[in-house]
Amino acid sequence: MLDPRRLRLLRDVAATGTIAAAAELAGCTAAAASQQLVALERDLGAALLERSARSVRLTEAGRVLAEHAGRLLAGIDEAERAVHDVAGLRGGTLRVAAFATAAIGFVVPALTTFRRRHPEVELRFTEWESAEALPELRAGTIDLAVTHEYAPLSRPDLRGLDQRPLYREPMLLAVPRDDAPAASGAIDLADFAGAAWVAALTSTGFQAATEMACRAAGFEPRIETRVHSYPMALAMVAAGFGVALVPRLAATPQRGLVHLPIARPTGLVRQIYATTRATDRNPAVRHLSRYLVEALKAAT
To answer: What sequence ranges are listed for the domain HTH lysR-type (predicted)?
Structure first.
């Protein structure tokens, strides 16, 4: 492989006409520069310079290589500048994904802060549920995903990934106002075993919160309605189509329903994370993680 330092010397010999001047530009002695040029000739198996007692000139092979060296070294210099720009948040791209309630609640404000403070970094955002975002993160399609899990229920495959806890929120039960129990206080999910349920489209895996929570309470839910989002779930509950599990961030007040705290199963929460690749040291990821924490504090 060609040594960029030796190519730079050859380019400078072509530009200045002497090894001594090229050595001065490189910050070394003429003797050291001459040795490096001899090594370059040996690497290529071709004479690059015609030397005499008082002068040096490039051979045709040397001239051709010097021309290519100029382009190669310009590319190397550009790559170094690009790396320094990314490290200093003066360039590069940050690709982010988040699920809808997090995006609306605090991710968009965090992205706004990032864009204001680091305008030279290109931001790209995709709305993805956690089950979609994790494989994309592992594949390198995105750099940071705001994901969630339902504790103490099933966990996703996190091999090769790091998670920073952002927020832990209780799950609540949204109930049509007319069907709400007369007594106030936390409820036992098993008391709603006979109810119709509104649940997410996902019926298996670590995102199937309704199925897992109800099974933990000792029954199989009768799911009559499946929806894509919590706002739609709440609309169906308010219209009397069933009850639904919702996290506190999504539990917006609405006419026609009430949100009940859950006593059993115990510890039923949604944990939100900033999830990244374990090997990623991108400083933009680190800064956005901090802005996510700041935005959450302002939102909760």
So the answer is: 2-59
Q: What is the number of residues in the chain?
A: 300
DSSP 183: S
* DSSP H or E run through 263: strand 257-264
DSSP 146-159: EEEEEETS-----T
Per-residue model confidence as pLDDT tens digits over 90-100: 778 999 999 99
DSSP β-bridge partners for residue 33: none
Mean pLDDT of 68-97: 76
Say how many Å lie between the first and final Cα of the chain, rounded: 57
Handedness of CA 192, 194, 195, 196 (dihedral sign): positive
pTM of the model: 0.69
Secondary structure letter of residue 242 according to DSSP: -
CA distances from 243 to 171, 219, 223, 262 (A): 13, 15, 9, 13
Asked, as a colleague might, if the bond just before 265 is cis with ω within 30 of 0, I would say yes
Q: Residue 280: which residues within 8 A CB-CB, separation 6 or more?
A: 143
Contact between 21 and 12 (Cβ < 8 Å): yes
Q: Is the pLDDT of residue 84 over 70?
A: no
The letter for the amino acid at 77 is: D
Joined together, the tokens standing for residue 11 give: 């380019």
φ/ψ of 207, rounded to 5, equals -95, 0
